[in-house]
Specification:
By secondary structure, this protein is an alpha/beta fold. It contains 24 helices and seven strands. Among the domains are: about 5-105, Fumarate Reductase Iron-sulfur Protein, Chain B, domain 2 (Orthogonal Bundle); about 295-409, Rossmann fold (3-Layer(aba) Sandwich).
């Protein structure tokens, strides 16, 4: 693709990167075949190829309008197109560059600014989120459907975490909303890893959000500040020999693995960010290389699982099928899931900012997941878990909870 960036666009911090990505696109259209929003609307501008053209036009000086903003907002950033693309286009990075520039040129409505600002405030402050969640659960029957879907019924209690001292030590990103929405996930992780001889260190107090929420809601600079704060908080443990930073939410994991790239131009943090990204592991990456026989799981009962692999796991982190492999190794029967590559519509805050498209995608995903009549659905991301759980006919849980339950039994 030929490009002719304006002098203004050439002064952007990531201008060279953006132009390189644009030129790597051969506009073949393969991406549209697997794009969830293009499948729903049939609009070229709601597919990756169309959005790439919109960003190209913006950087070449064509006037941008609210229409451009609408089509870029509709993107789930699921990275399905990157899995499909034969040219290796780093679409999600181009989208970040385009959205940052668009925010400077097209103002949002008051409603949009209030909604996005509220989401950034609530979701990145665990104590505040937990307090409001308790209130929301009390008044849940009275809440509008859109809000009620984000307030799941009270989850299972977390149980005790192990206190044993192990030679191998890990950091774990607890997350900003997961401790309230699904408190057993991180506790179950600690118990399973303890059985494998891995100790999860207590999370530093300064570590809250990975930064993805702010970064994807028009506050990229603030998102990177979260990243810097996390790096500073983790660094003493890294210097002491901590072998990995494990994430139980694949959305957080995908973003932490981007720290090295996003901060490569920051001389104070470039080297540290690269190291953190190298140490970042999704839980399944860690578990699949361990001797799982040490978990001493001898029976899994008669439950049948349908596995939902989040986009941030299979497309962003390229770990599609990894959770299924671990579960099969442990003897869990899995149902077949048609079109498992498609997004469920959660996509962080997408279910709130784009509720209509999100609901259509959720209904299609649940139809596929429940087609094999599973007793439970398992996933690897808290956003997907809550989103699917709001309408599923069977329980939706994190996959590590299933392993922990069988291990305890």
């Amino acid at each position: 693709m030929q490009t002719n960036l304006t002098s203004r666009a050439q002064l952007m911090p990531r201008a060279t990167e953006g132009e390189s990505i644009l030129r790597s696109c051969v506009h073949c259209g393969f991406c549209n075949a697997t794009c969830p929003t293009y499948q729903l609307t049939g609009d070229e501008l709601d597919g990756p190829r169309g959005r790439i053209y919109l960003i190209k036009q913006m950087l070449e000086g064509v006037e941008v309008t609210k229409t451009t903003q609408t089509h870029l907002d509709r993107c789930l950033t699921c990275c399905n197109c990157e899995t499909t693309c034969p040219s290796g286009v780093r679409y999600h990075s181009l989208l970040d560059i385009g959205r940052e520039e668009l925010a400077k040129r097209v103002a949002r409505t008051v409603r949009e600014r209030v909604l996005r600002g509220t989401l950034r405030t609530l979701m990145t402050r665990p104590a505040l989120f937990a307090f409001l969640l308790r209130i929301g659960r009390f008044f849940r029957p009275l809440l509008p459907t859109l809000i009620r879907d984000q307030v799941p019924a009270r989850p299972a209690t977390s149980g005790k975490r192990p206190v044993a001292i192990q030679a191998r030590k890990l950091l774990m990103l607890e997350g900003c909303v997961q401790p309230s929405l699904s408190p057993n996930t991180n506790a179950a992780t600690a118990r399973v890893l303890d059985r494998l001889g891995l100790q999860v260190l207590r999370a530093p107090a300064k570590v809250r959000c990975c930064g993805a929420v702010d970064y994807h809601l028009d506050a990229q600079a603030r998102g990177l500040q979260h990243a810097r704060r996390n790096i500073d908080a983790w660094w003493p443990a890294i210097e002491s020999g901590c072998e990995a930073i494990v994430q139980t939410a694949s959305g957080c994991g995908a973003f932490v693995k981007e720290y090295g790239h996003l901060l490569e131009a920051d001389p104070a943090y470039a080297a540290k960010a690269k190291k953190v990204s190298q140490l970042a592991l999704d839980l399944v990456e860690l578990l699949r290389r361990e001797p799982l026989e040490r978990l001493r799981i001898t029976g899994v009962g008669n439950q049948t699982l349908a596995c939902h692999c989040p986009c941030t796991l299979q497309h962003a982190q390229k770990l599609g099928g990894a959770v299924e492999d671990v579960l099969r190794r442990l003897g869990f029967p899995l149902t077949a899931v048609p079109e498992a590559h498609l997004c469920c519509g959660s996509a962080g805050t997408y279910s709130i900012t784009q509720p209509e498209l999100s609901k259509q995608l959720r209904d299609s995903k649940l139809a596929a997941l429940q087609s094999g009549d599973p007793s439970q659905i398992v996933t690897a991301n808290i956003g997907c878990q809550v989103h699917l759980g709001a309408a599923a006919k069977v329980p939706v849980r994190h996959w590590i909870e299933i392993i922990d339950q069988a291990m305890q039994a």
